[in-house]
Design goal:
2 domains, alpha/beta, 12 strands, globular, Rossmann fold, about 15% strand, 7-stranded parallel beta sheet
Length: about 325
Amino acid sequence: MSIKILITQYIPKEGLKELFDRYYVIMPGKAGFSSDEQKELIADADVLLSVFSSPVTRGLIEAGKKLKMIANFGVGYNNIDLVAANEKGIVITNTPDPVTLPTAEHTVGLILTLMRRISEMDRKLRSDKVADWKIMSNLGFTLNGKILGIMGMGKIGQATTRMAQTFGMTVVYHNRNKLPEAVEKGLNVHWLSKNELLKNSDVVSLHVPLTDETRYWIDGCEFQLMKETAFIINTSRGPVIREAALVEALKTKEIAGAALDVFEDEPTITKDLLLLENVVLTPHIGTGTIETRIATAACAAKNILAFLNGKEPPNRVS
């Protein structure tokens, strides 16, 4: 019987050609498969190609009687019940490389939009709320000379560093482990403790995975450490920030503003965030380009092809 690959949501076929040529692949139309449809279809699937926005629950994993691999479409894999997958010895992979540059691009775009008040001014012009155009009105902040604190100096953090430095920003970072001295020197960055980074940064940008350790990593105490003129950017995972504490910090002007591409309870957004002018919001589109979607599909396919040919997948999650 031929190998069966189940894809839970519609993704670009351009990156999946070899899978379709060699194996029996089931992929939905743009509406995607419902949870019930996924449970029915996975019963005799060998491989599940899951999407970061679609939960892979214990129930779904247990319904996959033949399931040997989960290839996640995205760098994050907190959508997968890892305990259930590990209990069944299922190999898990992700797609870290294609998302690096687009996420860094989006991060810098959010910094620019927030600090230069681009989306705020656009909204106000459209609703005729710009009171005047005088020389000292509608002022933002320049990036040049500001300190950018990167929390999580992985591939995306490093790409963001390079882009931000072209705008004249000085970059400091916090990792659980310091980078090798040669890497720090090459990036022109230096390590600070979490608290020191929060105290000294003009912009704090989050690039950490969602784990038990990083859930609500930024809470009320962290906002109290930040400058009143500081901004926070999150393109990692929503629950890294406790949104109620963020709203309070914004309302009481403990910090100057926030830009979020991810949310604590996606797709639900805390209503107060929608009402605040010093907030920029986007619907988890850090990797949202057609080029990236094709490249991510191709990366997931490469992992699957390696596994099905008895080789170690390039992006296996330990």
